[in-house]
UniProtKB/TrEMBL annotation, chain A:
It comes from the Bacteria. Pfam families: Pyr_redox_2. It comes from Dorea phocaeensis. Keywords: Oxidoreductase. This is FAD-dependent oxidoreductase.
């Protein structure tokens, strides 16, 4: 059986950055396992630009951003296997995988980095009534068809959900000659980045209907149209507001779910809010030596932050390989998200193990204007930062430093909340 | 005096900008939290431009399509001319990232370059 110091599950942006960072931290025995035929993950189909502003101070397309990391992986001679599906990982980090050349095989890892990314929420999760005709796609599937395989899914399009992929596809389908009639969003605010609303909808005069959803689907063989209706505050359709849109294609951009079947199977504890693993300051799960980063941990908006997070996971996995178990007998500070803050990553901090600086990322549960992002160290408010606006579609963060935390030796809980001005 | 409300797209912050114009000249920009917001607003109200990304077909390669972009931003009004010009373009593999796929697209003086490599 082959043995590696670090096995990384997934060769997308998180896996690549984790691998580069682990290698640069002095670990030579690294293997990336990727199920697709090439490295780069979802970036390969994200041909639009806007990636890398934080990492490279320039605007790159998805494939260009991926290539920067793939080049580093190649230059550093990090091993990877493509077309390889990981079937199972045990608590002892025995990885079972399969591919066409080697069949089913096992690899023993000292440390595992989970970097499997996420998948799209599908129609089945939405309970939309009506027939099940052809012409209903998740936005990411349509993106792959158009950008990688060169097929147009349809000519007249309605998009349900204003997540970033839906917005990006509204523009992409328009540029390829389709008529995008409307983007419908159940919530009273968009789930996507503002710049995508400006550049993908406003630029092309595509209407965004907030607080609207699809209440009926018409068409037996092929989609013929959908009925939109306004919803009330509870998300229930308001009778009398129905409006029919004829279309041959409905794209769903209604959320992403971290892909954690393998993590769950190996006994990694999950956070029900993120659907990702619970992790400490080292991005380590409850199983020692098993780390998580990127969209499998919590869904990000920006790949730059995925890379940053993954680099941290790679570095910490390298430290684990060198120093062994670091989980024992360490006092942990618990991060407590309340009042508008839905979750934090990480969920716990051990001051002795943390770097000089630690980024705590989180999402809010609603739109708050002229508010403060606050962190209380037990009872004392230590961070109080004014924000013009925070919204669920844009991930937030606060910076903690070791110096800050060392001033509070008895600290038990850091409460993160949104405070109205 | 004309007031234009914009959302800054220079970075993910998405600052809400207000540009005030007088006689076609920008006299003030407010709401920005960095210099890029000021530059964006001035440009957006006088000469809006965009990077355009798309795909073209590849023959003889490991992929059917290769992603491309305008090497620099082009006038917003030229976006559809640009994608129309790319409609029937087919390239032969191998393609290297950065290769010029089409020069001077739609009379903009800007080249279309590959954003991905496609091996034979």
């Amino acid at each position: 059986m082959k043995q590696y110091d670090i096995v990384i599950i997934g060769g997308g942006p998180a896996g690549l950055a984790a691998a580069v960072s682990a290698k640069n931290s002095g670990i030579d025995s690294i293997l990336i396992l990727e199920r697709d035929k090439e490295l780069g993950g979802i970036l390969n189909q994200c041909i639009h630009n806007g990636f890398g502003l934080h990492t490279f101070q320039e605007e790159l397309t998805g494939p260009e951003y991926a290539s920067r990391f793939i080049e580093q992986v190649e230059d550093l001679k990090i091993e990877y296997k493509l077309n390889t599906m990981v079937m199972d990982i045990t608590e002892d980090k025995l990885v079972t995988a399969m591919n066409r050349e080697e069949g089913l095989f096992e690899i023993q890892a000292k440390a595992v980095i989970l970097a499997m990314g996420c998948r799209e929420r599908s129609r089945g999760a939405l309970n939309i009534p009506g027939y099940r005709p052809a012409g209903i796609y998740s936005a990411g599937t349509a993106q792959r068809l158009v950008n990688m395989e060169g097929f147009m899914p349809g000519r007249e399009v309605v998009i349900l959900g204003s997540g970033d992929i839906g917005l990006i596809m509204a523009r992409r389908m328009t540029l390829e000659g389709a008529k995008v009639k409307v983007v419908s969003e159940l919530m009273p605010y968009s789930g996507g980045l503002k710049r995508n609303i400006v550049q993908c909808l406003d630029d092309y005069g595509i209407p965004l209907k907030l607080s609207h959803t699809v209440v009926d689907i018409k068409g037996k063989e092929r989609l013929e149209g959908v009925t939109l209706a306004e919803v009330d505050q509870k998300g229930k359709p308001i009778s009398g507001t129905e409006e029919f849109y004829s279309c041959d294609t409905l794209l769903l951009s209604v959320g992403l779910i971290p892909e954690n079947e393998i993590s769950g199977g190996m006994g990694v504890e999950m956070n029900p809010v993120t659907s990702g693993p619970k992790v400490n300051e080292s991005l380590e799960t409850n199983i020692e030596g098993v780390f998580a980063c990127g969209n499998v941990l919590h869904v990000h908006d920006l790949v730059d932050f995925v890379s940053e997070e993954a680099a941290s996971a790679g570095k910490n996995a390298a430290a684990y390989v060198r120093e062994g178990d670091r989980l024992e007998n360490e006092k942990e500070i618990v991060l407590n998200p309340v009042e508008g803050v839905r979750y934090t990553v990480p969920g716990t901090i051990c001051v002795n193990r943390m770097d000089e600086k630690l980024t705590v990322r989180f999402r809010v549960g609603g739109v708050f204007k002229n508010c403060y992002v606050s962190a209380y160290f037990d009872e004392e408010r230590v961070i109080h930062r004014k924000r013009q606006v925070v919204a669920p579609g844009e991930m937030e963060q606060i910076q903690l430093t070791k110096e800050m935390l060392l001033k509070y030796p008895d600290l038990k809980t850091i409460t993160v909340k949104i405070e109205e001005a | 005096m004309e007031v234009r409300n914009l959302t800054c797209i220079s970075c993910p912050m998405g600052c809400a900008l207000t540009a005030t114009l007088e006689g076609g000249e920008v006299i003030s920009v407010t709401g920005n939290t960095c210099k890029r917001g000021d530059i964006y607003a001035r440009k957006e109200v006088t000469n809006p431009t965009r990077i355009v990304t798309s795909t073209v077909r590849v023959t003889g390669g490991t992929a059917d399509m290769v992603s491309v972009k305008t090497k620099e931003d082009i006038p917003k009004g030229k976006i559809f001319d640009c994608v129309t010009a790319l409609k029937d373009v087919t390239v032969q593999a191998p393609v290297k990232i950065g290769d010029v796929i089409l020069s001077d697209v739609a009379g903009t003086g800007v080249d279309i370059i590959a954003t991905k490599s496609v091996e034979v």
